[in-house]
Structure formats: C-alpha cells, structure tokens
Write a structure and sequence with these properties.
- The structure is a homodimer.
- Chain A has five helices and two strands.
- By secondary structure, the first copy, chain A, is mainly α.
- The first copy, chain A, has a domain of about 90 residues: Orthogonal Bundle (Arc Repressor Mutant, subunit A), CATH 1.10.10.
- Chain A has a two-stranded antiparallel ribbon.
- In chain A, helix 1 crosses helix 5.
- The first copy, chain A, is elongated.
- Chains A and B meet through helix 1, helix 2, strand 1, strand 2 and helix 5 of A and helix 1, helix 2, strand 1, strand 2 and helix 5 of B.
- The structure holds a DNA duplex.
Chain lengths: ~130, ~130
DNA sequence: TTTGTCAATCGTTGATTAACGATATTGAGT
DNA sequence: ACTCAATATCGTTAATCAACGATTGACAAA
C-alpha cells in the first residue's frame, strides 16, 4: 500500500489508513487475538489456535490479515512463530477516536441528539 | 442489543461489540462520513452524498451500516434527515485502544520486538 | 536423510459487501 | 389531491470474506 502512515501528533491519518486498521479489528476472533497478545505481553505460538477454538487454517488466516494490516508482527522462532502486537500501528485509530471524544466534550451536542437541544416546540431551523 | 457493554473503567467491552464498532469504521467512505459529522458538529442532510462523490444509494447504504452499528443517529427533519454522531457508541473501542497504549508504556516489549529481551525467567513454554 | 511439528498455503463453499441505476416512499407545500 | 425534493429500498453484479479440510513447506532434532 502507500506509506501515508506517518504518526504525527496533531495530524490524523487518512481515511484509508484508519479504515485499514479498523478492518483488521472488524472480527471478534481478531479482537480476541489482539487481547490474547496483550494479556500475555509476550509472544505465543499456536496456542492461539487452541484458545480460539477455530481450525488452524482459519486462525492462520486471521493472523495473516492482522499481519497484513501491520497490527501484528510475527517472528520465526524455533519450530513455531512468535507473534506480538504492533502497538504503534494501532495509534492512528486510537488518536482518531480520542479526538472525537475530546471534541464531544467541548461540543454542545450530546450523544444521539442531533440538533443540540430539541424541546417539543420546534426550534426553527437549527438543523436545516 | 443486550447490555453486555456497560462502560466501566476497568471492564472492556466484549469482542463482538468491539468488532461491530470497528466494522462500522472499516471502510474509507464511512470514516469520511464520521469525519464530516464531526467537523460540522451538527447534522447534515444529503450533502454527505455530494461530499463523498458516490451514488446516493451507496451513501445511503453506508449510512444504514453506521446507523445499524449505533455510530450514527438520524432524525427526521423537514424534508431531509438529520444525521449526527453517537460518540458514546465509539467509546468502547476508544477505551480498548487506549488500554492497549497504556499497557504498551508499562510493558517491556517495544513494538515489533517479539520477546522482550528476556533472560531465562520464563518456563520455556513458548517463545524461546 | 528421515522424522516430527508447527505454520502457511491451496481449493472450495456459502455468506456478506460494495456499488450502481431504477423505483418506491415519505412528508411539506402548493 | 398533486407535486417536488430528499431518502430509502429493490435488484443486480462483481468482489471480498470466513471457514474448513487437505496439502505443502520449513526446520531442528534424531
């Protein structure tokens, strides 16, 4: 892919980069893999397969997707392969969501409420 | 929607909830919609379609996906529909990624490095 | 060299997604 | 009732995804 992935403090990543990271996490099994790698804080071999309860080839495919997105890194160890999280790869999405949360606090509109405050009477055109 | 997703400080959401939110953001067009809703901090009608440069039906489908995930809320206004972000729906994923970042700081393992330069304190089960 | 183990790849199936044009629906205004 | 504008939905096509079993590949140890 392209290298639009420079992690700069104020700048947020492109839509494509954010979508790529989100897509890597867009399956429960892959979220669980990330959790697993995080909880052990160290690499695991094929115990991931046993933990997920899926076929070995399926888990390998999920790992391939995570590696393709750069979220997970694999190093060849003895007979196994040593997986670990690439936390800095998750940073763009984390910063994006944090920025949303911050803007939320300083904004007038709360949650589902579309136009800031909406009483029964018509507020006449705040949202049109 | 069962409430397995209570937003408590230490508790993180389930794999399914996190994957659902991530999936909603797993397409560049949908990330752009979220950005659009964030930047205007108010609701927009069909200008989203014009901004994205996609067909109206395609944008409507993306909005449907975002609404189904609870990330976007739509209210019927005059002839249009008023869309807005549901920031609290994004919170679980944001907290999950933040938790990963925090654990990263307090952890010995840096980014791509798999086994964190450990001597021999591990019972040699996995990873060296 | 052979063996054993773990992981990646292949090939397939069914399900889901993305995108579009065309059509239907909704509701305010005339 | 009719009309107009904004969305949603339908129907289709091509593409991608998820899952599995079976096979292949890599490599340390016997």
């Amino acid at each position: 892919m392209e290298n639009t992935e420079t992690v700069s403090p104020p700048e947020l990543a492109s839509n494509e980069v954010l979508a790529t990271i989100a897509k890597a996490l867009a399956h429960p099994a892959r979220v669980q893999i990330v959790r697993l790698l995080l909880s052990r804080s160290s690499c695991i071999g094929g115990e991931i397969t046993q933990e997920l309860g899926l076929a070995q080839s399926t888990v390998s495919e999920h790992l391939r997707i995570l590696k393709a997105a750069g979220v997970v890194v694999g190093e060849i160890e003895h007979p196994r392969i040593c997986y670990s999280l690439s936390v800095q790869r998750l940073a763009p999405l984390s910063e994006f969501l944090t920025a949303i949360g911050l803007q939320y606090q300083t904004s007038a509109l709360k949650d589902g409420l579309c136009c800031p405050l909406e009483p029964s009477t018509e507020p006449s055109g705040s949202c049109s």
